[in-house]
Specification:
By secondary structure, the protein is α/β, with parallel strands linked by helices. The chain is built from 20 helices and 18 strands.
Length: 513
């Protein structure tokens, strides 16, 4: 069925060639010569779009536009006018017009505007599908040839770019991309298994969690910048991409990735950021600030003190303020306090919303329905960011001249493949990594660390080992196996090895003001 278009113009007889052109393109065009007849037509029939002349006898185009918006707010209106007066443009834009064309207009201009407003989603999806099909082999070759962290970061960025572009396409393209992501993750996990030990023992390691302050924050302070290190827990690169447009209003953006340590969990990766040390070093040098797996104490309650130990080790005297934001009221209070602390050179902020969303996704049936896919998970993130105090925090940081380093401690992955593991009662409960003694598992399905100290990790016992889930796997015990498999399949977890968990955003924001 063709789209029905209503065209209101007092010189409609002069527009017959345009109307015939649109009809030849498959549109059903009804014409009227004034605003009152346009409103009457809308009361008696349904239309997909309105072409509206601004200068008509009787009620004006702008008055007609206001009435259309009141009665039919969902209808796109393209205003066509001879006037180039700015105040008329402002009024039209203020009434949320879909487009604004200045006479004389040719038929192709009108067709382009109609397509943009009625068919842009389908056209974009169709073009994205074509482009991805053409790019599939090149990206597959890039996945197979990746031999460095830099290669894998570029692969991951491209996969995320296609994931966002193909969200509105048909299922066959989504399935192709999912297959390619799984292939990439499988190869990336093999790459990590081959190289991880060298990374954490090398004198010249890649940029990983313990080096964020020394390689990123301190050089900015040395350059005389006011810095806010803003850590959003569980924040993936694809989630960053959907909130990026909201932040770009206030900041110029430089985008990068870095590689987290293992396990990709708060206790290890985030503490490593703030201490500037591997977990084993934290336990040895500051045992009062290290919390073992089997302790009931909070796993990240000493972050402010760990930051201070790092500043002291590097003989830095900068004053800093540490703030943890667990809800919107805390965010609003932080915004209020920023003005009073505008001269503090280093703000360290931890925002826990994504972590709470991830856990709620596991525990709440309603959130499971709302975030039943990666796309839905991103959408929830964008909606929260848009409507929470977070956007106001970034606006205020920009106003106060803070350069922001926006990052995270680790990402998450949606798991769907259970693998069995057996451990004693002291084995930790994380679904993506296990630490314990006498663990029983299939070694071909995991990444093993039999001597945790070689990897910079403390061991609860002399015989303790770490194992990590790969790809979309998660660990499940044989007891009540079917129940736990059903409960956790499709949830977002972290702690293991995947592109989503290990390659995380490291974004530099320079205020525009």
């Amino acid at each position: 069925m063709s789209d029905k278009i209503l065209w209101a113009d007092d010189e409609i007889d002069l527009l017959k060639p345009h109307i015939l052109f649109l009809k030849a393109k498959g549109y059903d065009v009804k014409t009227v010569s004034n605003g009152r007849d346009a409103l009457d037509a809308l009361d008696h029939d349904a239309y997909s779009l309105i072409l509206l002349d601004e200068n008509m006898p009787g009620i004006s185009g702008l008055e007609t536009l206001s009435e259309i918006n009141r009665r039919h707010p969902e209808l796109p209106v393209i205003m066509i006018t001879k006037s180039e007066e700015e105040n008329i443009m402002d009024q039209a834009i203020g009434n949320r017009i879909a487009d604004y064309l200045i006479k004389p207009v040719n038929p192709n201009q009108i067709l382009l505007s109609i397509k943009k407003n009625l068919h842009s989603r389908e056209i974009v999806a169709e073009q994205a599908t074509t482009n991805y099909q053409q790019d599939f082999m090149r990206l597959s070759a890039k996945i197979n040839a990746a031999s460095s962290l830099e290669d894998w970061m570029e692969v991951y960025k491209e996969l995320v770019r296609w994931e966002l572009k193909l969200e509105d396409t048909d299922n066959s393209m989504s399935e192709m991309l999912l297959m390619q992501k799984r292939d990439a993750n499988s190869n990336f996990c093999k790459f990590v298994k081959r190289n991880y030990e060298e990374w954490v023992t090398s004198d010249n390691p890649p940029l990983m969690s313990p080096r964020i302050f020394s390689k990123c924050v301190f050089p900015m302070l040395d350059a005389g910048e006011k810095i806010c290190l803003f850590v959003i827990d569980n924040f993936r690169f694809d989630q960053w991409k959907v909130v990026q447009p909201l932040i770009s209003e206030f900041f110029n953006i430089t985008e990068d990735l870095y590689t987290t340590i293992l396990p990709t969990s708060t206790q290890y990766a985030r503490n490593a950021i703030f201490a500037g040390l591997m977990p084993l070093q934290i336990e040895k040098m500051f045992p009062q600030y290290w919390v073992d797996e089997d302790e009931n104490e909070g796993l990240n309650i000493h972050e402010e003190k760990l930051v201070q130990t790092q500043l002291d080790r590097f003989r830095r005297k900068e004053r800093f303020i540490y703030t943890k934001l667990n809800d919107s009221s805390a965010g609003e209070k932080f915004v209020q306090m920023l003005s009073a602390n505008r001269d503090v050179p280093l703000q360290v902020v931890v925002l826990n919303f994504i972590d709470m969303l991830s856990h709620a996704r596991t525990e709440s049936k309603m959130i499971r329905e709302l975030a039943n896919s990666d796309a839905a998970y991103r959408s929830l993130t964008e909606s929260w960011f848009r409507h929470s105090s977070a956007i106001e925090i970034f606006r205020r940081l920009a106003e106060l001249g803070y350069k922001v380093l926006l990052t995270t401690d680790h990402g998450t992955i949606r798991v769907d493949n259970p693998i069995k593991v057996v451990g004693d009662k002291n084995t930790n409960t994380n679904l993506r990594y296990k630490v314990g003694k006498s663990l029983n598992y299939n070694p071909r399905q995991v990444y093993e660390m039999h001597d945790p100290k070689r990897f910079g990790l403390p061991a609860p016992n002399l015989s303790s080992s770490f194992i990590y889930a790969l790809n979309e796997d998660f660990f499940s015990y044989p007891n009540n196996y079917n129940y736990y498999v059903q409960y956790y399949t499709g949830t977002f977890q972290h702690g293991g090895i995947s592109l989503q968990e290990m390659l995380v955003p490291l974004i530099t924001l320079m205020p525009k003001v």
